[in-house]
């Protein structure tokens, strides 16, 4: 599926070319916008990676897992996937690292492995996205965004466990 | 909210590391995280320049408006206060379409563009609009048709069926999306009443 990207580029540029758009100049103009956006969100990336990295390094992430144990037992969340549930809203690449670690230990085709994969592909790095997206336009009061996004995240976890247990249990 | 979360994560980390003797590891992590933020940002710089450039060419040709015909009616129903033919709607449609194809790197520039366009409809530039909150919630429950990264990891770890996760992922995303959208609408209404 990685090979789809050249075709998307070809398709978009061809379409523009046929419609008489000066594609090279348009690309440069857009690329300049892209450069400005990156410069604007760079500080947000530094801030988030710092906080998450510190939480992991201090052992705090592991402690939170221990504290949440009663909840995870109640919701039938396999203990192995807890770090993934904590990591995914914060950092996408961090979560992928955690996933690889889980799959290595429980096996990719085990029920726990499939639940972990389902959770990671149906949830998003909400804290990170909210910080970066709102940060890029200078929004300070995010209102109900985080609450609603968390509800969706929790739903995904519960549904993933239920569906996978039925299909693969 | 973000101010509080960020501060407490850091304050807690330092305090906790100090009590269990992990200060050295913490110190090391601070500088490792700085290095990886630079790496990520440099990668993002290239990606954003590529996709913003391509998008600009397509935008000038009117392709963005055409591409989203399938999901646009649905988005139109959800985002009643955003004009259907606006650049904001176009960027949101492209962001969601890219996410559906598992092109995370492509989705981010469209998403940032969507936020910038949505800001033009905002009266109070410091406060999120209903549309922004809803867009981020939809963004947070991606209906991924091809979870390419996850399938690659599964395959590399010896899975017999890397694609086994596609169907459960889609069902799960759809459920999360539904709950997220309903929550957004409820929170909007409740806030409106309080004012």
UniProtKB/TrEMBL annotation, chain A:
Domain Nucleoside transporter/FeoB GTPase Gate: 39-140
Pfam families recorded: Gate
One cellular component (GO) term of this entry: plasma membrane
Transmembrane domains' residue ranges: 44-68, 80-99, 111-134, 146-168
Name used for this protein in its record: Spore maturation protein B
Lineage, broadest ranks: Bacteria, Bacillati, Bacillota, Clostridia, Lutisporales
Keyword terms: Membrane, Transmembrane, Transmembrane helix
TrEMBL record, chain B:
Spans traversing the lipid bilayer: 131-153, 165-187
Protein name: Spore maturation protein A
Pfam families per record: Gate
Protein species of origin: Lutispora thermophila DSM 19022
Domain Nucleoside transporter/FeoB GTPase Gate, first and last residues per copy: 42-139
Keywords, ordered alphabetically: Membrane, Transmembrane, Transmembrane helix
Domain of life, per lineage: Bacteria
């Amino acid at each position: 599926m990685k090979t789809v990207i050249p075709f998307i580029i070809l398709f978009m540029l061809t379409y523009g070319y046929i419609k008489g758009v000066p594609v090279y100049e348009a690309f440069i103009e857009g690329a300049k916008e892209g450069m400005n956006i990156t410069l604007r969100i760079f500080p947000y990336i530094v801030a988030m990676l710092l906080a998450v990295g510190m939480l992991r390094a201090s052992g705090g992430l592991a402690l939170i897992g221990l504290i949440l144990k009663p909840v995870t037992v109640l919701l039938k969340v396999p203990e192995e996937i807890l770090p993934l549930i904590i990591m995914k809203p914060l950092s996408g690449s961090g979560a992928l690292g955690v996933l690889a670690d889980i799959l290595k230990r429980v096996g990719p085709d085990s029920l726990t492995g499939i639940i972990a994969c389902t959770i990671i592909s149906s949830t998003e790095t909400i804290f990170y996205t909210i910080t970066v997206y709102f940060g890029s336009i200078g929004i300070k009061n995010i209102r109900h965004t985080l609450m609603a996004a968390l509800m969706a995240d929790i739903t995904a976890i519960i549904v993933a466990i239920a569906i996978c247990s039925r299909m693969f249990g | 909210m973000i101010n509080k979360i960020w501060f407490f994560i850091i304050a807690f980390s330092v305090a906790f590391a100090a009590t269990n003797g992990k200060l050295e590891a913490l110190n090391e992590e601070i500088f490792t995280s700085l290095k990886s933020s630079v790496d990520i940002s440099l990668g993002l710089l290239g990606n954003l320049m590529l996709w913003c450039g391509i998008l600009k060419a397509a935008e000038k040709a009117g392709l963005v408006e055409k591409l989203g015909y399938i999901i646009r009616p649905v988005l139109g129903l959800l985002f009643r206060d955003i004009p259907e033919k606006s650049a904001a709607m176009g960027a949101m449609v492209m962001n969601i379409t890219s996410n559906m194809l598992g092109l995370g790197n492509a989705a981010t520039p469209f998403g940032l563009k969507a936020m910038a366009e949505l800001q033009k409809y905002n009266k109070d530039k410091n406060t999120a609009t209903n549309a922004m909150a809803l867009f981020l919630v939809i963004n947070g429950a991606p209906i991924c048709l091809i979870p390419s990264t996850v399938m690659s990891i599964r395959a590399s770890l010896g899975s017999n069926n890397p694609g086994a996760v596609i169907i459960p992922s889609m069902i799960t995303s759809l459920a999360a999306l539904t709950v997220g959208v309903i929550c957004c609408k409820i929170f909007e209404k409740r806030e409106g009443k309080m004012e």
